[in-house]
Structures are given as C-alpha cells and as structure tokens.
Write a structure and sequence with these properties.
Blueprint (H helix, E strand, L loop, with lengths): L1 H18 L2 H4 L4 H14 L2 H6 L6 E6 L3 H13 L4 E7 L16 E3 L2 H5 L5 E4 L7 H10 L3 E4 L2 H18 L3 E2 L10 H8 L5 E7 L2 H11 L4 H10 L8 H4 L2 H15 L1 E2 L15 H9 L2 E12 L2 E12 L11 E8 L3 E8 L3 H16 L10 E2 L7 E10 L5 H11 L4 E5 L9 E11 H11 L10 E6 L1
Parallel strand pairs: 1-2, 1-4, 2-3, 4-5, 5-6, 8-13, 10-17
Antiparallel strand pairs: 7-9, 7-11, 9-10, 11-12, 14-16, 14-17, 15-16
This protein binds NADP nicotinamide-adenine-dinucleotide phosphate.
C-alpha cells in the first residue's frame, strides 16, 4: 500500500515538475506543494489532480503600466482570479504610476533587469513597440519565464522566433490580446476552429479607422473626426500607424499565420490609407447599397496567398457593416465549418486586459498553446473582385469613352456608371463600378487613365466586398 502511494506521488511530482518548473527553484514554497501532493494522493487520481488549478499562484510582473497594464492590474486585484498574484510593476518614472489600490506587497520598479531577474514567473509585456520590449521578452523567455503580451508588432515581426525560444526554454508565450483586443479570435482559432481549414479572413481590425469612417458615414469630414478621435484618446498624435493601415496589417499577418498557416513578412502586405476617402465616396457608396470600412483581408487558394489592407466598399447587409464606433469584427471562412463571425471591443484598457488575464488564467491552469503548424510563404496583393472607381475630372466630351476603352483593353467589364448631380463641371466626381477583375489588370488600366489631362487627381479604386 505504501509503495503504491509512493508511485502515485512520483507521477504527481513529475506532472508538477513539467508544469510548475518553479517548484524546484523556489524551495520556500515546497512544503505547501508537498501538502498539496499528499492531499491529492489520498483523495484523487493523478488525472484528477492534473485537471486542478496549480497550488501556488503564478507570480506576475507587468511591464508597462499604461492603459492596458493598469487595467490588467485592476482585474487581478479586484477579481482575484485563482492562481494569479501581481508581484511586480515595471515602468519608467515609476513613482508617477503608483496607485493606492494595489497591495503593499507589489514591488514598483524602474529597473527592468532587476524585475527580469526576480522570482516572477510570468512577464506581462504591455509597453508596446519592438524595442526595448523585444529585448525584455527575449530575456524573460531565455531564463525560462513565460510571457504574455498584447504587442501585435512584436508578434507579427518576431512571433515565430519568440515561440521557438519559449518552447526551447520550457516557458510559454501567449498573445491572445494582440489581435482584436477583447475579442477572443486567437484562442478561437487555436482551439475551437483548429479542426477546420480556414481559407479566408476578413476583418475590421483597427478601431480608430472604424470610428473615423463610421463618423464620416454620418456626414463628418475626415479632419474633424480625426481631431475628435485624438481628443478621445482613440488616435495617436501621429495617426499614420492606424489610418495608413500598418497596425491592421500586423494583426492580419498574425491571423494569417494562425488561421491560414502561412508565415508572411508583414512588410509584404501593402496597406492603403483611409485618408483618400472623402464625403463624396460615402454618398456614392450609399447609392450603391454599401458603406466604407477599413478591411484587412487574406485568402488562401491552393498554394496562392493574397492579402491586403485598406478602405473597401462593403454591402450594408454584410456583418462587417454592423460594427459601430471603435468595434472590431472578424469573419473566418472555413472549408468545412463555413463562416464564423466575431465582434466586440477590439481595443480599450479593460477589454484588452480581459484577453491578457484570460491568457494568464489559461497559463495558471497549465494549458499550453496549441502548436499550430505553419510554413513560410509569400502574399501577393492580387484579388479577383468587383471594384468601385471614383474619378475627379475637369469635364469635357469623350472622357467616359476613353475610360471604357482603357478598361476594355484589360478585359474589364463595366457594371455601372453613376454621376450625381450638383457638382461643378470643372471638378466633377463620378463613379464607375466594374465586374470582378484582377487587381493587377485594373492597376494597369488605371495607370493609363490617370495620364489623361482631364484628371484632377489619380482615380480612387476600392475593392467591393459582396
Ligand atoms: N490600448 C489598447 O486598446 C490596446 C489594444 C490592443 C493591444 N494593445 C497593445 O498593448 C500594449 C500597451 O498598449 P497601451 O495602450 O497600454 O499603451 P500605453 O498606454 O502607452 O502604455 C504603455 C506603458 O508602457 C510604458 N513604457 C513604454 N515604453 C517604455 C520603456 N521603454 N521603458 C519603460 N516603460 C515604458 C509607458 O510609460 P510612459 O507613461 O512613461 O510612456 C506606459 O506606461 C501595446 O503593445 C499595444 O499595441 C493596446
């Protein structure tokens, strides 16, 4: 009997060794672990024990006490999720960050090296950017700690290398908050949809652009809405990262790796800015039964992968047209399971912190990241879809004939020509929509059209999602 109990204890100890490496490195906690093991061996099977949360809390160090970092601390302190303990906060000039609602036991530090060398089990990186955040994450993983981050840029550019490092050192890297903030798209791909073969991703991945375009849809001008977004803290002083599509393309690259299982260099995805959109485009879009949103989309057909980010016309009946304010939305289309739609708050301190804390809870319960196989690939910007083309011309006879001839030369069929009244002849906007055509064919046609001397500005072409 004693021998049987001993073997059982050994198996339990081994499980603890795999999941709780720190049991051995922090002997002061060992007595509690021993008590836990003794209780398990007498009351439950090793399988039951394995399903239980860990006996000791994970010691958590937050790097970056800003919007998301302070929300993560709030949730940890207020909700007290089982198995998690906030022990350190690192930030530059940390004195101004101290809050009176944190327990006195929390160590506030502006010495990153000291916190990395501390007995914290998990580093929660919420400072953002590639450097020095990347160096902290590497350092933490090198020393066998686990890392949770919401840093899409770091994961988009270095995620694969960092995941390999984590695996080789026995730690974990989780980044459920890096795409679509509080919407659990990444955990859904890793778990609920792992059995499907996802072929297409379409998403509104940047809340700032959605806010701006949503307000423009209601009649506001771009500059005024941008100022409002900056005032409310939705947009940075330099909004290029958001409005230029760079933020969304980092998120798209992460989703492509997990959902389409193809590793692309984010720089290969050429983003298009929403700054080219004006009130007249919303007016024409409305007449066509559409609205305009910044869309990130990628498709995999056989070995061909296409990806793009930019403003697009979307049918008002599409779920993508439903998202309001700073909301995000993602539609994943699976070969077997069809479409799955995710929507909710893609940004903001609390929603994003929920995703971070959920990653921490999963870690505390010993849930490992599902290793989704992926392989390096190239993404082209080539799609075959209908397009909206808006021209701004100094009107004269023969313009439409010249445009149709240039499109016909590339085998592009016109679907409709729409011209609204009320615009001056010397600055006349009108729209041509075309049947599905290849992006490259359209670009060639537009390159010749934009040389016409009547063009006041280059034509604006937008994909139409139907
Ligand atoms: N905010 C969102 O809605 C959201 C949504 C999804 C993902 N994310 C991601 O979450 C991360 C954090 O975003 P956030 O909005 O919380 O940013 P934030 O409000 O600017 O907070 C960043 C914090 O990190 C500190 N920090 C930055 N660089 C540092 C350095 N070199 N040394 C020491 N401290 C440094 C900042 O200190 P200072 O106060 O001195 O600048 C600040 O307290 C980013 O990766 C972001 O992309 C954010």
């Amino acid at each position: 009997m004693r021998e049987a109990v001993g073997r059982q204890e050994m198996r339990v100890a081994l499980r603890y060794h795999r999941n709780n490496r720190w049991v051995h490195s922090r002997p002061e906690k060992e007595s509690q672990v021993q008590e836990g093991k003794a209780a398990e061996s007498s009351q439950s099977s090793p399988a039951q024990a394995a399903r239980r949360p860990r006996v000791h809390p994970l010691r958590i160090a937050i790097f970056g006490f800003g919007t998301v970092g302070s929300s993560v601390a709030r949730i940890l302190i207020e909700s007290k999720p089982a198995g998690l303990e906030l022990t350190h906060v690192f930030n530059r000039g940390v004195a101004r960050k101290r809050v009176d609602w944190a327990p006195a036991s929390v160590v506030w530090s502006e010495d990153a090296e000291a916190v990395l060398a501390s007995d914290a089990d998990v580093i929660v990186e919420l400072a953002g950017g590639l450097d020095p955040a990347g160096a902290w994450v590497r350092h933490a993983l090198e020393s066998g700690k686990s890392v949770i981050t919401a840093n899409k840029k770091l994961i988009a550019y270095h995620g694969i290398e960092l995941e390999r490092l984590a695996a080789s050192k026995g730690g974990h890297l989780k980044y459920g908050a890096a795409v679509a903030g509080g919407i659990p798209v990444i955990p859904a791909i890793e778990q609920g949809l792992a059995g499907d073969r996802i072929q297409r991703i379409e998403g509104i991945l940047n809340g700032t652009c959605n806010f701006i375009l949503g307000k423009m849809e209601e009649g506001a001008e771009y500059a005024a809405v941008l100022a409002q977004a900056q005032q409310r803290g939705y947009a940075e002083a330099d909004p290029t990262e958001d409005v230029g599509g760079f933020d969304a393309r980092s998120k798209l690259a992460i989703l492509m790796r997990l959902a389409l299982r193809v590793e692309v260099d984010p720089d290969e995805i050429v983003p298009r800015s929403i700054t080219t959109i004006s009130a007249v485009d919303f007016s024409y879009a409305r007449d066509l039964g559409c609205t305009i949103r910044q869309i990130a989309r990628a498709e995999k057909t056989g070995e061909q992968v296409s990806a793009t980010v930019g403003p697009m016309l979307i049918d008002r009946r599409s779920p993508l047209a439903w998202s309001r304010g700073t909301e995000n939305m993602v539609i994943l289309s699976g070969h077997y399971g069809g479409d799955v739609v995710f929507s909710g708050h893609g940004a903001g301190g609390h929603p994003t912190a929920v995703a971070v804390v959920s990653d921490l809870i999963a870690l505390a319960h010993g849930s490992r990241r599902v290793a989704i196989p992926s392989s390096p690939g190239k993404a082209s910007g080539e799609f075959e879809v209908p397009h909206y083309i808006r021209f701004l011309v100094n009107d004269r006879p023969g313009i439409v004939a010249a445009i149709t001839s240039a499109l016909a030369k590339e085998q592009i069929n016109i679907r409709a020509i729409v011209q609204k009244p009320g615009y001056p002849q010397h600055a006349l906007p009108f729209v041509v929509t075309v049947e599905p055509c290849r992006t490259s064919d359209l670009r060639r046609a537009l390159a010749s059209i934009q040389n016409m001397d009547c063009m006041i500005e280059p034509p604006l072409d937008l994909q139409m999602l139907e």
